[in-house]
Write a structure and sequence with these properties.
Blueprint lengths: L2 H19 L7 H13 L3 H28 L5 H15 L9 H13 L4 H29 L12
Helix pairs in contact: 1-6, 2-3, 2-5, 2-6, 3-4, 3-5, 3-6, 5-6
């Protein structure tokens, strides 16, 4: 079994469970899927998990800051100015190792706005999605170990 087939199985099962039950606890499935995708885009593994969590959650913070800045301004283009500041900061923070995953920050910020500016729902959904990404990778690697084939074509055995 290839990693992609194993990942398809693990992601499919976990995604189905997430989609079915996350609404029951007040979370948004699509935000979890955004973070899950960020996990794989950040390279997976523990490093990808750390980058995803840090970047996604910083994006939520910048979303809150954008709303706060906008609230302080009283002129027609306040939203645009606030977004310029937030977008600049999401890029500028990239010099910090775990905040260097700029797409993750923008995904977190967009998730905050998509949650109707509910930072708790956005943050918890993002955290769950990143963890599900990590779990799906672990399960996929385990499936490959058990059901995969060695380079010579013989079946791999669990050690």
């Amino acid at each position: 079994m290839s990693f992609f087939v194993a990942a398809g199985i693990s992601i499919g099962v976990l995604a189905g469970i997430w989609a079915q039950f996350c609404g029951n606890i007040g979370l948004l499935a699509w935000i979890g899927f955004v973070s899950w995708a960020c996990f794989y885009a950040a390279g997976g593994g523990k490093a990808g998990l750390g980058k995803t969590l840090a970047a996604n959650l910083s994006g939520v913070v910048w979303g809150v800051v954008i709303v706060a800045i906008m609230g302080l301004m009283n002129f027609p283009f306040a939203l645009g100015v606030a977004v310029v500041i937030g977008a600049f900061m999401m890029c500028a923070q990239a010099h910090i190792k775990y905040l260097a995953f700029i797409p993750g920050s923008f995904a977190g910020c967009a998730s905050y706005f998509g949650s109707n500016a509910d930072w708790k729902v956005a943050a918890i959904s993002l955290i769950c999605g990143a963890i599900l990404g990590y779990l799906s990778e672990i399960i996929a690697l385990y499936l490959v170990k058990i059901f995969g084939k060695k380079a010579d074509g013989s079946k791999s055995t669990a050690e």
